[in-house]
Amino acid sequence: MGTKESKHACISYEDAVKRVSDAELRRLKDAFKKSAGVGRLYLSRNAFQQDVLCEGVPPKITDMLYVACGGTQRGISLKDLLCGLVLITRGTQEEKTKFLWNLYCNDAGTYIIKSDYVRNVNLAPFESVSLFAQGERVNFEQFQDWIVKHRNATVLSNWLLADNCVSLTSELETPTFYQSLAGVTHLEEKDIGDLEKEFWRLKNTSQNGQIDLQFLGPLISPPIPKNALTGLFNAFDENRDGHIDFKELCCGVSAACRGPGVERTRFCFKIFDVDRDGVLNHEETLQMINVLLFVAKENRDAQQFKDLTNQHVISDLVEFAQRRSPDGVPSTLTRDNVSLTAEDFMIWNVQCGLRLMQPLLDLIFELCHIVFGLWPQCKHMEYDIVRGWLQREERRPYRVGQFWYLISRDWWLTWMQYTQHTSQTCDYCKRTASQRSAVDEALVCDESFNTHSLEQHDSYSLGSVSGSSGISAGRHCGQHRPGPIDNSNLITANPYRNVRTLTGEGGHLKRDTPLVQNHDFELVPKSLWKAVNRWYGDNLPLPRQVIQPPNLEVELELYPLNLRILLHQVQTAPNSSGASTQITSWGSTTSGGYGVLASGGGYAAIAASSVLQPPKRYLAYTAAFSRLATVRQVGEFLCEQLRLKPEDIRLWHVPPSSASLDNSAILLEEDTMCLKELLIRDNDQLLLEIRNKDLTWPEELSSLASTQSGQVGAGPGDRRRLTRTSIMSVHAPGATGLHNLGNTCFMNAALQVLFNTQPLAQYFHRQMHRFELNAANKLGTRGQLAMRYAELLKEVWTATTRSVAPLKLRFCVNKHAPQFAGGGQHDSQELLEWLLDALHEDLNRVMEKPYSELKDSNGRPDKIVAAEAWSQHHARNQSIIIDLFYGQLKSKVSCLSCGHESVRFDPFSLLSLPLPVENYVYLEVLVILLDGSVPIKYGLRLNSECKYSDLKQKLATLCPLQPSLMLVCELWNSQIRQVVADEEKLRTQSSKDLYVYQLPEQSSVRTRSNSALSMHIEQGLKDIQRSSALITTQDSLSSLSTLQTSNRSSSRVICNGHISDGQDPAGPDGSHELTKYSNANTNISSSSVGHVHELQPDDAGKVSRCFGKRECMPHSLFCFKDKLAPATNPCKTKIIKIFKSIFRRNWHSFSPPSVYCRNT
């Protein structure tokens, strides 16, 4: 036996396909594709074991079945797998025996060897002797005779040869989602599939991907009244999660359309029961009456409801309640308190003679078919749905921005004859016979027409598209289903069909013969067009938009402006013969683009071309726009479609009379003007100019190239580009802008300053520079800059355009000042200084500059020295620039030794003045008072040069604290970072971490600047943090009068060089004083503590530390947990009281400092 190569199949693939149904074959193919993977042709061995067999099959048996079914090292193909599965499930006894033979035989397929067979199947000794009685191997005939008699010899033979051992399709399959949903609704599986397609289309259209009230409102209102939108949405949204899922949509459509009358009425009750309490209260009932009357008066049978009012309906409800009440019991329902339960609502709908509920039921029925995608059950129902929806829309006036679609009258008549004829054999026709005017008995209704029959006629419909033969046949025989909507008889031939169109207008309507509504075409709203298109398909949609011209009524624009969009080509003309795009949908559009195609390719910016090679134009796109669309809307639409930036494009109008001339385009700069006001007509050309990568405009380069080459239009008047504004309005002289030619805003700013200097502008405007041009001056540009500047100034002051391009001047600047070349950014002052100097040298009246030596002032008056200096400068430099822009700057140099002063007057043209800058700092200070009140945060604005003493003075005007009672600290991470001194300058980095603590009034006797603390405030950050509480205590005490010692044990406090005795240090006036201990060698001994180190003079700012004395520190600041004997300390109570009084509010809010005491 070998298992490396596959065995020959017992049945062929064609025979296997005949033994399975189409559904089974399709299911097997889908399962194979899913298990093998997308794009793979073979099923792996692991996938065969997991998906075809199961994991419980032994690996050895799996390998045998894998090879027997045609498995190789690459895998099993679909054909081999299908042959194996069909043989196992539906094969004959001979075929199954042959399959078992292939399992056990050798690679050649000639014999079964005893050792391999016994090892694989674990035969009993008896069966082994009976099979191999004649030798160690057997052939197929011997094996076939033996396996028939000993079927139960092996597990595989017993399983495979048994009748109905395994089935290819399980009869107890789990129902699909569609089957489960169809079982709980009144919909068929095909209906659910149609609803799912429309559901996902709506979800993909929504901005947030959900069908919520905000998205659904514009789709269904109108015709649904706005006051009923929320109720209708809640009727679908069962779980009240704010959006409608697919299951809710199917259940709602089933209840509103396909359910019995009671269920449809109950669905309407859900619309009005907003609070879902099962009862319509007075407000909900009045809302119901308003909605029912509004819908009824918009219905096609509105004539019978025109005189009906709210009071009539309320009276009918009151009478209904009286009839429903038991005999002798008065009804509680009055005109001022009208309420209905669900049961009363449904009974009133049946017994009410007004029949107000039927128009709402019909509207919801039509809504589910038109908007939600449910297909009609028969063609007669389709006719009623379309007729009801269309008549309701036609009664409403046109709305600006609304789209209506044109349908050929020929196709419309064919559809009407197909759908409007009724038959007595149709169930729907029987129910609606009273609503129809006539019944054509000659035509027999096809009851088999349903949603499934629409698909069956697709092949016939597609065959009747070409020509009008299908339409003519449809006229004579109304039973034939019309083909896709054909509007070819309404449009003319498109001469630019090989050019891509950016809009979805559909085509050019015929103009030679006027098209008349109801004679040549029919109009349907957008929502109805989508439904008919979904049922029949279309070849050419013709949407048209409703507009409102100024001072006129709204109208439907049948003939929009079809424009040709031109682009520039740089080197070779791109191939614009792309296939025309088939329009499938419009989507929401603006008045800028007359319908937009779904896909729009990007367009990269044109690379900068050579200056001397004017770019050519070519037809790139076509587009249709409303004649009321503004230039801004057209530009935004083109930018959106071609993925361009609005600041990188300009629009030009190319009149048809001079379309062949390159310099005849008119720049469209008035963004708010519409195409009609700009005299743009149908089939005109619009040039879409896209700025180059170096920020130059191709049209400006073309103008310069034409001027240099001497082509037509090279004169001063012809070179100037016209704009529609210049033609239709008067332009103010000098109010002309300069184009940015690639980060040239620095140059434009300097030029605009010079252009508006009146003396200089008049000098060049009167051509006076020609008489003073110094072309021989090597220090200038030999007159080139002056000539280019004069030309540009004349163009700015005489042009009728809103902007011009300073191309020639820019090239001249780049030539003579390479530092300003390229596309980089530069300083406008530097360019202005160079420009004035170059213009001065080009217009210098001094041809040869004489040598002169500047004399010293020698104490002479400034007036004489200044006149002498200016005379020497004027002898070498004389021009209009010197007269207008130059002055003298006085400089004085004094000798520090002898006091001699030397005064000079130097000429200057520019002075750099500093701009005034706000020199303030903003601080936030949190003030904490001693009374325990809530801290208050103050915001202060101070000069950045102020000190913290100024902060205290400013803060004293806002809070009830004197500057002497303020302690300013910087806190970080709930710890005191630093106690700032009054003389320090404000720091902006700590502006948000400032805290001001109120000090006790006793501390006003001394200032912090005179205390020892201020002298050592920067010493030891840890000491400051740990002793900050005691520091405050020190400021609250007055100087201790004397320092006494005794033989008995007394306690002293040593802090920053200060010693406090244990006795009461109060003086005669009641004040406290703390004297500085300054003895160089003083020994303090104590029998209980021991030796204390000597205090040196430099130790005055440090803390003498001791540990372990809990009576020397507050209770919450214990450093050790050991239990010590209590000791009396007269200073203890006083320190803790003052410490707590200062930090009462923040006792636990920050890391408290430690108080170090020493008992002596």
TrEMBL record:
EC number: 3.4.19.12
Domain DUSP, first and last residues per copy: 377-547
Top-level EC class: hydrolase
Membrane-crossing residue ranges in chain numbering: none
Keywords linked to the UniProt accession: Calcium, Hydrolase, Metal-binding, Phosphoprotein, Protease, Repeat, Thiol protease, Ubl conjugation pathway
Reactions catalysed: Thiol-dependent hydrolysis of ester, thioester, amide, peptide and isopeptide bonds formed by the C-terminal Gly of ubiquitin (a 76-residue protein attached to proteins as an intracellular targeting signal)
Residue intervals of the EF-hand domain: 224-259, 260-295
GO molecular function list: calcium ion binding; cysteine-type deubiquitinase activity
GO terms under cellular component: Golgi apparatus
Superkingdom: Eukaryota
GO biological process, one term: protein deubiquitination
Protein name: Ubiquitin carboxyl-terminal hydrolase 32
Species name: Drosophila hydei
Classification of source organism: Eukaryota, Metazoa, Ecdysozoa, Arthropoda, Hexapoda
Name of the encoding gene: LOC111604472
